[in-house]
Design brief:
Blueprint lengths: L1 H14 L13 E6 L4 H20 L4 E6 H6 L2 H5 L5 E3 L7 H11 L3 E3 L20 E5 L1 E2 L10 H5 L3 E2 L2 H13 L4 E5 L16 H9 L6 E5 L8 H9 L6 E3 L7 H6 L6 H14 L4 E8 L6 H14 L3 E6 L17 H25 L4 E9 L7 E5 L4 E4 L9 E9 L3 E8 L22
Parallel strand pairs: 1-2, 2-3, 3-4, 5-8, 8-9, 10-11, 11-12, 15-17
Antiparallel strand pairs: 6-7, 13-14, 13-16, 14-15, 16-17
Helix pairs in contact: 12-13
This protein binds iron/sulfur cluster.
Iron/sulfur cluster (SF4) binds next to helix 6.
């Protein structure tokens, strides 16, 4: 979500007539986009702003701003801690950034816009995308769920869905430019369409996107378990472009903790979903988020999370240590799990997930996977990387000419995070269906 917001910010600035600098030392304007979801992310952003203030001391004309969730939450308090800061721009005022920058430059006065969480005017056409192959598409903003630990509803406002025709038009334009994969983004994409007139839900949206020629892969994040419907599971199974992957955070394996988190489901409800997803789409990759050390989490509660992860065998998991977010309901509970205990639990789950991922990835050695080639590998620029439909990283020998192609590959080796592959068929462009058969030529990628 923040990556996409950074692309909006870049688009708004460039659309406002500014150019792109090569690096922060070369820049006349520096805007930090920030995340408030965890204390660590917030601290990092403020630390970076402090370092940039030192740069501004040497270069007084530099315009320095903080955008995003930390701006929305801390508001003018940010000016107290960062006296050289010029701009505080909330989550729904991105479009006003060029005007704010001009005001700072003309008047030298600080600018703050954080007031209105109910309205937002974003020109999505301005988005300056970082990739020419894959694009994030915002389908909704905000969240109505109020999980007790989460700051998001307070800094991003209530849930608002974008009209489907706008989304379809944006994706249609991306398809014409050669984009192959789109990821629909929202805090809780499964509740897409609430309050839309005429009605349209996520399943209908997926069906409409599935029909757009040129787009080969569709993903969506994040899914809230309480809103995953049988119809959505059916759509993942039925629509050939919808990838066999779902990220649906469990957060805890303890029903007591889930209740305290206000998540709206029990472990049993969640397990039924896991079974339904695997029954409908046997090859589906499952991902989750887990929070350890939530207030009141006992050893027995934690053991239930360990057991749930063992049973489910996720393909990937993000493990977080709980940190109190001011203003949330959980902040009223005593943060009673010591930091050392949180670290220990975090480590246990990371190790467990590593073992599971390694076992599953190694079991795939010798099998075929379908990979959308993205570009050179970050770790080894002499090799190429892409992702499988299950969202696993695939690394292989190949050239730049393969970027944007969908190739059939065999898995030759694997670690917990990476599949090392060999190209089996350079000509494969059509997505396979959920049983591994090729799709109709209508869905072939451009050569
Ligand atoms: S669903 Fe819960 S965790 Fe996710 S953004 Fe909404 S309130 Fe936060």
């Amino acid at each position: 979500m923040n990556e996409l917001d950074s692309e909006f910010i870049k688009g708004a600035i460039v659309g406002g007539g500014f150019g792109e600098a090569q690096n922060e030392y070369d820049a006349d304007i520096i805007l930090l986009n920030t995340c408030a979801v965890r204390e660590m992310a917030e601290r990092k952003a403020l630390g970076k702003a402090g370092l940039l203030s030192q740069l501004k001391e040497k270069k007084p004309d530099l315009v320095l701003g903080i955008c995003g969730c930390v701006a929305q939450q801390r508001k003018e308090q940010l000016f107290d801690g960062l006296p050289l800061l010029d701009i505080v721009c909330g989550t729904r005022q991105i479009a006003q950034l060029p005007e704010m920058i001009e005001s700072v430059r003309k008047t030298g006065e600080r600018q703050i816009r954080v007031e209105d969480l109910s309205s937002e005017k974003l020109d999505f056409a301005l988005t300056k995308r970082n990739s020419l192959i894959k694009a994030f598409i915002s389908i909704m903003r905000g969240c109505d769920n109020y999980c007790s630990y989460c700051i998001v509803p307070y800094v991003r406002g209530r849930e608002r869905s974008r009209p489907p025709q706008e989304i379809i038009a944006e994706i249609g334009q991306l398809a014409q430019k050669g984009y192959k994969e789109i990821t629909l983004l929202g805090q809780n994409v499964n509740s897409y369409g609430k309050r839309l007139e005429p009605e349209c839900d996520l399943v209908e949206l997926l069906e409409r996107i599935n029909a757009i020629r040129g787009i080969e892969r569709i993903r969506f994040v994040t899914s809230h378990p309480k809103d995953i419907s049988p119809a959505l599971i059916g759509a993942i199974a039925r629509l050939e472009k919808v990838c066999e992957h779902i990220h649906f955070p469990l957060q805890s394996g303890s029903d007591k903790v889930l209740r305290l988190m206000n998540r709206g489901y029990s472990l049993n409800d969640y397990m039924k979903l896991v079974d339904a997803l695997r029954d409908a789409v046997p090859s589906i990759g499952l991902g989750t988020d887990i929070i350890v050390g939530f207030p009141g989490e006992t050893e027995a509660d934690f053991a239930e999370t360990v057991e749930a992860m063992r049973r489910i065998e996720y393909d990937s998991a993000f493990i977080f240590k709980y940190s109190t977010r001011e203003g949330t309901d959980a902040a009223k509970l005593p943060d009673d799990v010591p930091l050392e205990k949180k670290k220990e639990r975090n480590k246990i789950l990371l190790q467990l997930q590593k073992q599971i991922s390694l076992r599953k990835n190694r079991a795939s050695i010798g099998s075929y996977v379908e990979v959308l080639v993205e570009g050179p590998s970050k770790r080894n620029p002499y090799r190429m990387m892409g992702r499988t439909r299950q969202n696993k990283i695939a690394v292989f020998d190949g050239g730049q000419h393969l970027v944007g192609k969908i190739l059939k590959m065999t898995v030759a080796d694997a670690t917990a995070l990476t599949l090392f592959c060999q190209v089996a068929e350079e000509t494969l462009s059509a997505p396979q269906n959920k049983t591994g058969q090729r799709q109709s030529p209508a869905y072939r990628a451009s050569p």
